[in-house]
Design brief:
The chain is mostly helical. It has eight helices and no strands. It has helices at residues 2-22, 29-48, 56-73, 80-102, 113-137, 141-162, 168-192, 197-223. It has one domain. The protein starts with a helix and ends with a helix.
Length: 224
């Protein structure tokens, strides 16, 4: 019951946060945005605490790093230092998710055509996006490129881990990774290409849903 309450509160706060973006009210977001990962962490830990698996801590670590990233990116307009610091926090979050995916048992690794196809598509997507944004990134080119490589690897690790597991948990993990890439794409486009409020709403919607899918997917996998 407690888990359902935390999950409900999470989506309520996410909706309020997106509404604040839509009506251009930045101040409520100093509460709603940092609160998101706190609620999701309670949602996760209320269930994961009963699981006797060390990998559960990787997901919790990803949520903590994401929480710090959320806070730091709120001040990205004041200095690029905040943006880079937030980027590092989310990079660590992606590494935690990647570590979780790499620990998933799988029998068929790097052997199927769909693996090769997804690898090529992901690399082409990452390179194409970087090529589009490269002229506007200036001194942020190196950290953004490193981040793009890490999140691409996170996406591929989820696909390699779960592509052949026919379960809801597997589907949610892959969906969460895809949505995270989409959220970061919208964030990058908004920052380096064409800033607008619609992109901001899209960033939070895909980000919030991505984190929930990754948490729920990992829980269902660890319980299976």
């Amino acid at each position: 019951m407690r888990k359902k309450i935390w999950g409900l509160l999470y989506f309520i706060v996410l909706a309020i946060d997106m509404l604040a973006i839509a009506v251009d009210l930045p101040y409520p977001r100093y509460i709603t945005k940092p609160l998101l990962m706190v609620l999701l962490a309670f949602h996760y830990w209320s269930d994961a605490i009963n699981l006797q698996q060390p990998v559960r801590n990787l997901i919790f670590a990803a949520l903590i790093f994401s929480w710090w990233g959320d806070i730091l990116l709120m001040f990205e307009h004041d200095s690029n230092l905040f943006f880079i610091s937030g980027l590092i926090c989310f990079l660590l979050a992606h590494l935690a998710y990647t570590a979780f995916f790499l620990k998933v048992e799988h029998d068929e690794y790097f052997v199927k055509p769909r693996h090769i196809t997804w690898t090529c598509l992901s690399l082409v997507y990452a390179i194409g996006l970087l090529y589009l944004l490269y002229p506007n990134m200036a001194e942020l080119r190196v950290p953004v490129t490193i981040y793009a490589l890490v999140i691409t690897f996170m996406l591929l690790s989820s696909i390699y881990a779960f592509a052949f597991k026919n379960s809801l948990g597997a589907f949610l993990c892959i969906l969460g990774a895809v949505l995270f890439v989409l959220s970061d794409t919208l964030l990058a486009v908004r920052k380096f290409y064409t800033p607008n409020s619609i992109a901001g709403i899209g960033v939070m919607f895909t980000y919030g849903l991505a984190q929930w899918c990754l948490v729920e997917g990992s829980l269902k996998h660890m319980k299976s």
